[in-house]
């Protein structure tokens, strides 16, 4: 099911107005009272069943799913020591196997590493793809198979990295100098969406001068007067922001409370904001902003987000009770998995293998929960995911 179905069937809103084209032709329109523009987020039953008792790795999973630990901070994996504070991640096809890339959200040494898997899931090797950067939080993959690693610092940069480890990572300064969080590519409009982790952060899009080359282009900021409805975009006058932050350069810019993960598919870019615990949807086809999730339970501490071709969104919690929650196309929110015993950590980097059968993610600070992330754990879950 296409991800736009989530919007066409009303999304998951609490007090958010949906109108116009998002309702037209909706498969579930009959379930909404005539004239109604409100749909309340609701907790529903998981298509996989509820998470069971924790397994040997401390991961509570639905029936039919299994977990394994693929890497631990400070321990060798594939010939290298795995980095501290694992954060945003993505998967890439690699011949008969695949690669999982993971950022390191630590000061000064940050960067990103990669694990190469064989066709049966065996670990072939691991290696660094970015070093010497600062607090690399989230990011995003590109259609041309590179990884955008984002620095979550004042005047942070976006680095374009080669997940295959053959080319040196390069800063893409035209994408702006701000507290970058995540990136999501929209190949239909040939833009890259960017979130900003500030209490009054903005939502941006970068329009490269040539699609596939991020060295030059135009940085724009989303402008709107309300939380839902039509939006416009305005150019950021000075993306380098040596004196005035990018989020303060355009008076009409809409501000969001702590931008986190973002994920694009099928004409919609979903993104999360931790300050108000919301999941948003930017309908790029109609240039409208909507709220997908706005509630306190079951999803708490919204952070990284990914999805599947079936239209399911997987949202990781920063804190909460250490769950990855599932948002289905029929407007139901339900826990998918839970990590037990990691109360002072957060779940980061959810990403599916290219064939959709394996989900990777990390507990950034692990069971010890130390701020330096020296007890980080990276997991793999295998099972009958909807694809």
TrEMBL record:
Gene3D superfamilies: YVTN repeat-like/Quinoprotein amine dehydrogenase. It comes from the Bacteria. Keywords: Signal. The keyword Signal applies. InterPro entries: PhoX, TAT_signal, WD40, WD40/YVTN_repeat-like_dom_sf. Residues 1-19 form the signal peptide. This is Translocation protein TolB.
């Amino acid at each position: 099911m296409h991800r736009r179905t989530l919007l066409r069937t009303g999304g998951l809103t609490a007090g958010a107005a949906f109108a116009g084209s998002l309702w037209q032709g909706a498969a579930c329109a009959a379930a909404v009272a005539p004239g109604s523009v409100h749909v309340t987020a609701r907790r529903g039953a998981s298509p996989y069943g509820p998470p069971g008792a924790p397994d040997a790795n401390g991961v509570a999973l639905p029936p039919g799913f299994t977990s394994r630990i693929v890497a631990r901070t400070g321990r060798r994996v594939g010939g290298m020591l795995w980095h501290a504070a694992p954060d945003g991640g993505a998967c890439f096809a690699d011949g008969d196997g695949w690669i999982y890339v993971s950022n390191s959200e630590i000061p000064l040494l940050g960067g990103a590493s990669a694990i190469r898997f064989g066709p049966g899931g065996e670990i072939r090797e691991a290696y660094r793809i970015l070093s010497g950067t600062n607090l690399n939080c989230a990011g995003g993959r590109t259609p041309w198979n590179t990884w955008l690693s984002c620095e979550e610092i004042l005047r942070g940069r976006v680095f374009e990295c080669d997940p295959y480890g053959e080319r040196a990572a390069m800063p893409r300064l035209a994408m702006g100098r701000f507290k970058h969080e995540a990136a999501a590519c929209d190949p239909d409009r040939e833009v890259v969406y960017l979130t900003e982790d500030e209490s009054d952060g903005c939502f941006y899009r970068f329009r490269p001068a040539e699609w596939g080359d991020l060295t030059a282009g135009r940085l724009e900021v989303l402008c709107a007067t309300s939380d839902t409805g039509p939006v416009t975009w305005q150019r950021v006058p000075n993306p380098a922001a040596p004196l005035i932050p990018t989020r303060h350069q355009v008076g009409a810019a809409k501000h969001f409370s702590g931008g986190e993960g973002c994920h694009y598919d099928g004409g919609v870019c979903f993104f999360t904001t931790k300050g108000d615990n919301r999941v948003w949807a930017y309908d790029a086809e109609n240039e409208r902003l909507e709220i997908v999730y706005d509630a306190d339970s079951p999803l708490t501490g919204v952070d990284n987000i990914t999805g599947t071709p079936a239209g399911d969104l997987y949202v990781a919690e920063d804190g909460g009770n250490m769950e990855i929650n599932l948002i289905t196309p029929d407007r139901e929110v339900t826990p998918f998995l839970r990590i037990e015993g990691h109360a002072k950590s957060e779940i980061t980097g959810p990403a599916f293998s290219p064939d959709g059968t394996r989900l990777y993610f990390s507990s950034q600070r692990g069971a010890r929960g130390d701020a330096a992330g020296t007890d980080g754990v990276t997991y793999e879950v295998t099972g009958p995911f909807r694809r």
